[in-house]
Amino acid sequence: MQVILHTAMKTFEQIVQDSYNRYLEQLAKDLKVEVNDQSVKRYQKQVELITKLLEHGYRASEAPRITIQEALQSADASILFPRAISDTLLRGREPMMIGQTVLAKTIQVDNVRSFEFPVVGALRAFDIGETQEYPEQSPAFTRQFIEIKVTKSGLAFAISEEIIKDSMWDVLGYMIEAAGYALMRHKEEKIFNEAIAKAHPVYDNSVNDVNFWTHGMGADGKYNYTVHFDDLIDALGALVAHEYIPTDIVMHPLSWVVLAKDPILRAQFMHGGQIGQTVWRNMPTFDQSANLPWAINYVVTPFMPITLRSKITGHTGSGTAWPNPATLPDANISDILIVDRNNGILILQREPMSMDNFEDWRRDATMMKFKERYGVAALNQGRGMTVIKNVRLDTNYAPVVTIRQITPP
Q1: What is the DSSP string of 46-104?
Q2: What's the CA gap between 154 and 367, in Å, rounded?
Q3: Which residues, including other chains, have CB under 8 Å from residue 214's CB and lie 6 or more apart?
Q4: Rounded to an integer, what distance in angstroms lies between the CA atom of residue 160 and that of residue 102?
Q5: Residue 281: C-alpha distances to residues 156, 277, 284, 287, 406 (Å)
Q6: Other CB atoms closer than 10 Å to residue 90's CB: what's the count?
Q7: Each residue of 45-62: b (16+ CB within 10 Å) or e?
Q8: Cα(102)–Cα(247) distance, integer angstroms
Q9: H helices within 253-314, ranges in order?
Q10: Over 70: is that where the pLDDT of 142 sits?
Q11: Which residues contact 351 (CB under 8 A, 6 or more apart)?
Q12: What count of Cα atoms within 13 Å lies in the side-chain half-sphere of residue 337?
């Protein structure tokens, strides 16, 4: 056993060494010089210097006086600049892109344009008696599979001759970070578009079916198509019914305001779950996980879809309790997403954000091109997500306690 383990360890060490040798060979091919450990360290220091020059607030006295013109004209510019700029693109950014960093799983692949895999939830296990055969399960590849196609996203912009001649490293750094923001925003939009499209709709106020309408109530006692605490519980329960654990409630910032004004949620959150506690004695604490299981997070992101100042269409209401939504005042309309972050969205990443080239002979400018290659898909055909769609972002006046007068017979 020890001999086998020792052999396996040697094999792994050899794999690591071979990988490093291939890296040196590629680096030597790019730089067109002989490469060794010493030259690799020198190359990395050069990249770090350019990266620091692109940082905001980096004092010129802390670095050698290098002009952008000299850096671009150096023999190694085509290698050093793309590497340093890629490091700048991948810096941490605010506001946090929660779709990419929290709700989605990322798998790094090479030389893959599309990928198919069966739905995990398609298989079932059974109790097996003594001497009985194991029941064979088929993943039903023809129907229960997900395909992720890798696509390319990118943008380009020109750097003026003045920026290069005057060595405006800070301005160049701002422009590169702006390109990084643009690529990340684009990916975030694709993530949430996929999530909303594939999530299981529990309520949808735009369909012509009263069973799908939310139960928020206006001050007149009629339903006004806002969201109610019970609607949220139903959406959580639907996700649990699919055998997933809800971890995050995702909404637009304006949707969160509506939920915070809900009388039941407000009583839970701001009074620590104790309805009737005196508010004026002590300032209330805000506990966004109070009285809800699984320690669910409330995540706010501007990338959730929203329609500003509009009306719900698709039906004319039903009876006196459900008015025609066209007769209600205009309001913002949005969706609320409930996600199991471990089974929500998958990102198939082939190439991270990088700069391709910086040449433009048509004018006195340097063209910078940025790109990223990845694919986005919902796991398990969207079973790990539920959604409440087309919610009017208005105040819900549904009473916390209903008092009825009963006349004895």
Answers
A1: HHHHHHHHTSTT--GGGS----HHHHHHSTTHHHHHHHHHHHHHTS--SS--HIIIIIE
A2: 13
A3: 203, 205, 223, 225, 226, 227, 228, 231, 388, 391
A4: 37
A5: 58, 9, 9, 18, 36
A6: 13
A7: ebbebbbebbeeeeeeee
A8: 10
A9: 253-261, 263-270
A10: no
A11: 371, 372, 373, 374
A12: 32
Cβ neighbours, 10 Å, residue 167: 18
Give the torsion sign (CA, 94, 97, 100, 102): positive
Report the predicted TM-score, pTM, of the whole model to 2 decimal places.
0.75
Q: Token pair for residue 341?
A: 């972050």
Paired tokens of 175 = 């422009």
Is residue 211's pLDDT more than 60?
yes
Contact (Cβ atoms closer than 8 angstroms) between residue 301 and residue 98: yes
Angle ∠(172,177,181) on CA atoms, nearest 5: 150
CATH no., domain 98-122+138-402 = 3.90.1690
Cα radius of gyration (the chain): 28
Confidence bin at 276 (pLDDT 50/70/90): very low
Taking CA atoms, 393 is separated from 113, 255, 256, 261, 389, in Å, by 41, 6, 9, 11, 11
Residue 286 DSSP code: -
Taking residue 127's Cβ as centre, other Cβ atoms within 10 Å add up to 6
- Which residues lie closer than 8 Å to 364 by C-beta, 6 or more apart? 160, 161
* H or E stretch at 105: strand 104-108
Res 403: pLDDT: 78
CA dihedral 226, 231, 232, 235 (to 10 degrees): -130
Query: What CA–CA distance (Å, rounded) separates 89 from 355?
Result: 9
Q: How far, in Å, CA of 377 to CA of 180, rounded?
A: 22
In this predicted model, what pLDDT tens digit does every residue of 63-118 receive, in sequence order?
Answer: 556 777 777 666 666 666 776 777 677 665 555 688 888 889 888 887 777 776 66
